[in-house]
Structure formats: C-alpha cells, structure tokens
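> example.struct
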C-alpha cells in the first residue's frame, strides 16, 4: 500500500490531534488534491457528528475498554465504522482494508489484526441487521449516545424544546449540510450568476428570503470552476445574510463591521452600498486580518478600510451603522462545525456571554445619534441572544429595538417582530439570531 497521505490517513491525524488538544487543525488537508480534501472534510465532520454512537459500537466489539484504546487506533476504528455505516457508496473492502493497513503501518501488525477483527464483525452484523442499539437506563445518556451530542446539551435542549423537538434539532445537526452561495454583485450580476449555474449543470435552488442566495448540495464543483478566485460568489449561509440585511447600509454611509474576520459580511456590506462610503472592518487577530484584506481585494470591495484593534480597549469615531457579529458558542452551526459540540461546556457558555456583553458595550459607543447597531450570533442559546439584549437595554436607555418585518420573512421573526432566530430543524439553514437597535438619544 502506498504510504503517501490519503484522505483517510489525513482524517485520522486531524481527529487524533483534536482528541489530544481540543483544537481542530485541518492544515494538513492542504497537502491533498481537491477531491481527496473534500473526502477528508466529510470524514472529519461526519465522524464528529456521529462520534458518541460510533464509540458505542466500538465498545460493543472491542475486547479492550474504549477509554484504554490508543487515540490514533480509536480514530482508525471510527473512520472504518463511519465509512461502512454512514458513507454512501463506499465498498466495504475499501472501508475496511485501508484503515487496517494504516493500523499495521502506523502502529503494529497486532493493531492491524485487531482493527480487522472489529471492522469485519461490524460488517457481518450490519448485513445481518444485528448491530447493537444503545440501551442505557439514564435517559439523557441514551439520547446523548444515540444522537451524538454531549449530555449537558441534550438535557438543555430537551428542557427547552421538549423531547420530540430536541430530537429533530439534533437530527438536523447530524445531517450533511447544504451550502448557500451569494452572488457578488461587485463582480457580476445576480441574473448572470444564475445563468452560470444553469449552464454549468450544477443543481441549485434560488432562495426567496434574500436576493442573490443560491442553495447547492456541495461547493466542490463550484470551487473547480474558479468562481471563488474570480470573486463572483462566496459561501455564506442564508441566515448569515440576515444581519447585513437588517443593518441595511446605504451608499455613502460610514459603517463598522466588528469582529469582522474573515470578512464575509464586509463583502456583503460593500455590495449593498454599491462600493460608496466607508466600511471599517475591524478584528483583534493579526493573522485573520490578512484574510479580510485578501477577500476585500478578491471581491472588489474598494471601500473597505481594515484595522486590527481590541474594540473593548480602544476608542473609535462614531459611525452611521455598526454590525457586531460576536464570537459565540456556535451551537447554530453544529452540522458544519461538529467539533464545537465536543468543545463547548456550560462554564464556557457563561464566559462567552460575559465577553459578548463587553463587546456590545463597546459597539454601542461607536453609534451616532440616529444610527443603527445590529447584534448577531450563530447561536441558538437564549443567554447569548435575547437575554443578552434585554440586559443591554436595562443599561442603555438611548437604544430601542426596531421591527424587522420590512427586511426578513415572518417565519424567522419573533412574535413581536423585534428579533430573528433561525433553527436548523425548522428553517433548513444554520441557527442565527439578530436584532436591530437604533440610537435615539
């Protein structure tokens, strides 16, 4: 067997590093070609979406307790089982043989034999419809294992939504995500981009919630066309487009995009403003600032001024409009970022909400009288969303919530129309929250 890097080997290495460091570093995937890179991404996110259930299966068939298995070997087994149970079209011999060979070459022949025995048994019992099913006395543990979410998250969602809807949410989090492309009207026109999609034969659905958004099953074929490099379109979930939509920046205005990296929303703002006015794209990360500059140039956003700054510590001139898309738990994007479900903790949720409150305070002090402030997250947690805004308004009587029904469809709005919240199982997109605040004094 060739010892060069493959999608499977790269995936095992990334997953092993994640287990050891709690950090998902996919830079090694850059060594793969486009098709292999896509396959590796599917393995990594897919295994993380199904990790608890896969580990349950391993524990059923392994003579060595799960917690005693070497991490690299455990991820070899995870990959083989995921390939057999969840990957469409992978022949069993491929799902078994390469992981077994990796175990032999990277660990030992004994490990290869053990991997072969476990994976062959999974294959036999799957074919006989005899795979084991979780059966724990603890209901929350049973659900957490079945749906591969941490137990604290399961308990939280069952309490909030009820068991049936919580199951629907977790099932949505475990689906392979679909993606949205936003046509960049600074480089093309929406109607021309639609024609490109039609002529290319790439299946798509045009979204009627916002102009210029097209849903596609995969971005791999789009990437192969070179459209991203030409700045014709960008990957952005439809729900992520809601924050710029309600900010409604006008040509000639001064606008802040805070916590802006990698600059996706900055590009949308420049597009909406017809490249007239000024957008200050601000982020604290020196490394990520470079990505904003690269995107602004690529997508033709000429009005962008980039600044590395800690907005909590530094003072800024007042602007007509401020977009604050805060760092958050990311619980609205668990299908695309499955690693987050294993990284987040209740204590971390508390720390994140405290940081968000500081950022919101700083953003409020950048808004002119009569100006607008949008607060947005990709979270579905109340503490990060409406509770955060309610606490803010207790301290800032010079801001008022504005109705959103002129900007967004009713199905994503709260009953009072003063906020939006998308949920993956209800809206078939990522989970995002946002409000529009006007400074009245």
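> example.seq
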């Amino acid at each position: 067997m060739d010892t060069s890097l493959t999608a499977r080997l790269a995936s095992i290495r990334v997953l092993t590093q994640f287990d050891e460091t709690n950090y998902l570093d996919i830079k090694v995937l850059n060594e793969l070609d486009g098709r292999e890179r896509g396959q590796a991404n599917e393995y990594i996110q897919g295994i993380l979406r199904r990790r608890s259930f896969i580990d349950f299966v391993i524990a059923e068939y392994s003579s060595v307790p799960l917690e005693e298995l070497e991490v690299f070997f455990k991820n070899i087994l995870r990959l083989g089982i995921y390939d057999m149970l969840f990957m469409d079209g992978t022949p069993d011999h491929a799902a078994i043989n390469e992981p077994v060979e990796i175990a032999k070459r990277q660990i030992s022949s004994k490990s290869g034999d053990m991997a072969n025995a476990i994976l062959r048994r999974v294959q036999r019992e799957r074919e006989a419809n005899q795979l084991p099913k979780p059966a724990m006395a603890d209901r929350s543990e049973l659900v957490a294992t079945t749906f591969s979410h941490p137990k604290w998250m399961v308990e939280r969602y069952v309490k909030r939504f009820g068991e049936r809807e919580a199951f629907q949410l977790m099932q949505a989090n475990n689906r392979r995500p679909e993606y949205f492309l936003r046509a960049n009207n600074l480089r093309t026109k929406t109607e021309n981009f639609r024609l490109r999609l039609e002529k290319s034969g790439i299946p798509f659905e045009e979204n009627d919630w916002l102009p210029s958004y097209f849903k596609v099953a995969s971005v791999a074929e789009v990437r192969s066309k070179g459209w991203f490099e030409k700045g014709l379109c960008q990957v952005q979930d439809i729900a992520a487009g809601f924050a710029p939509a309600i900010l409604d920046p006008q040509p000639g205005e001064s606008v802040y995009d805070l916590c802006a990296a990698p600059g996706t929303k900055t590009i949308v703002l420049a597009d909406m403003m017809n490249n007239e006015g000024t957008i200050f794209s601000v982020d604290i990360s020196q490394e990520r600032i470079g990505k904003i500059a690269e995107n602004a140039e690529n997508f033709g956003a000429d009005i962008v001024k980039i600044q590395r700054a800690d907005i909590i510590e530094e003072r800024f001139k007042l602007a007509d409009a401020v977009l604050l898309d805060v760092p958050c738990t990311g619980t609205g994007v668990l299908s695309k970022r499955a690693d987050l479900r294993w990284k987040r903790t209740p204590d971390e949720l508390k720390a994140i909400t405290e940081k968000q409150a500081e950022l919101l305070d700083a953003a409020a002090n950048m808004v002119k009288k009569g100006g607008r402030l949008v607060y947005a997250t990709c979270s579905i947690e109340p503490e990060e969303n409406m509770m955060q805004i309610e606490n803010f308004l207790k301290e800032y009587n010079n801001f008022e919530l504005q109705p959103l029904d002129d900007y967004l469809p009713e199905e994503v709005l709260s009953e009072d129309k003063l906020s939006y919240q998308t949920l993956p199982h209800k809206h078939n997109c990522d989970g995002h929250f946002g409000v529009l605040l006007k400074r009245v004094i």
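> remarks
The mean pLDDT is 96.
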